[in-house]
Amino acid sequence: MDTIWQPELIAGQGPKYRAVVATIRDGIEKGALQVGDKLPPVRDLAWKLSITPGTVARAYTILTDEGALQAEVGRGTFVAPPRAARVSDAPIEIDVIPHSTEEDSDQYNVSLFSPHLPCVGQDKLIRHLMAEVAANPPSGIMHYPSRDSARPARRAVLRWLEGTPLGPLGEKDIVLCHGGQNGILMILQSILEGRKPTVLIEELAYPGFRRAAEMLRADVVPVPMDAEGIIPDALEAAVRAHDAQVLCTSPEVHNPTGGFTPVARREEIAKIARQYDVQIVEDDCYRMGVNRAPSYRMLAPERGWYVSSIAKTVTPALRLGFAIAPEGKWSVLRRTAEHSFFGLATPLSDLAALLLVHPQIDDLTRETRRAFNKYVQSAVNILGGHDLSWREDVPFLWLRLPMGWRAGAFCQAAEAVGVQIRSAEEFVCRDARAPHAVRMAVNAGVSIGSFEAAMTRLCQLLDNPPEQISV
User: Fold this and answer.
1) How far is Cα 110 from Cα 148, in angstroms, rounded to an integer?
2) What is the CATH number of the domain that holds 75?
3) Which of 62, 89, 341, 406 is 20 to 30 A (C-alpha) from 16?
4) What is the CA radius of gyration of the chain?
5) What tens digit of pLDDT does each residue of 98-131 get?
6) Is residue 3 part of a domain?
């Protein structure tokens, strides 16, 4: 039932959100708020206390993160029952504010440019392990990185990749890199030959493919696609017309549409690549769940390159990624890394060796997926009446705009109401025509209420397109 709790006006020094947190805690401790009581909606409590909705939303988020409250999609925020300590709690207890120090940072302006991971305990674990590495760094702090010093980290990556259908794989095959984008660049550096090579990408593709290829002075050619990914006949035509050396693709989680390339289509693509001696670079950074089909490294072990990272499952802050060459070509990729930056900083590789095999890490990644799914479901509940593509285990959604909206105009209108999204134009080559669509990444770093409010504002825009469309 709804609570009859009626807090008084917030006063005193210090940030107001802390005063709200203290007031709610006090209400719970003194029995004014009982388990299961529903708290007032953010805006109602803000009006009652004469403060901003962002201040209340931030207080609710802090109390939800610590387990005092629980938020239920479509129902509201309730006093949570007592529970045992989270499995993710690390031995070090540090008072951390989950959002920035600006009170309204997560209430009105919500960035959906890139996925923002929720804090489910990985922050505490990483701080604990960083302290452990700092106290006794296994690789020391006075030496250059080396193949030997990074061996424990490579073994940890092997453990991390267990169950991924990559074909025969050993510790020596793993090359550590500074995130997935760095891995893509290293792979292209290892492959491309000649004065003006050609790289093929999907006609809608992760912009990092294009940027890495252009940095290496390669021509970039888009290949038409359908709901299952790259169209094989179009791929063969592009290879023959441009004498392409490399195909870059994201078959498990296509960025930006969230699509999936089934195994039969992958086999057709691998056959064409083998026939024309084209290398295949697979970006698997957005996959959060289990693989649904074999990787290209398994389907075409002599030409399948693979790159992934922990940016979408643990944290993007560490810039920890890993690249894998086709069977027997690991030395080429490793030499590229060593000639570029010698190797990861030894404290980072020491941290990776502990983090990726830690007993808590599997539970933390499951909690991250569960949290993302909660936000995705909220977005679908609000925007489901429109042409929306989504998957429970993918931290972004693809929205095809209704008649009356163009992508650029819709992004501008969205930003005017405090929501930042990406236009389809960012995912096509510069001279290509983009569909009237946008990508919305899940920002699980803001409260679920703030996220739902952002989705509601987008829905209102979709339902009210401009009367005149600029040509």
Assistant:
1) 44
2) 1.10.10.10
3) 89
4) 24
5) 443 334 444 468 999 999 999 999 999 999 999 9
6) no
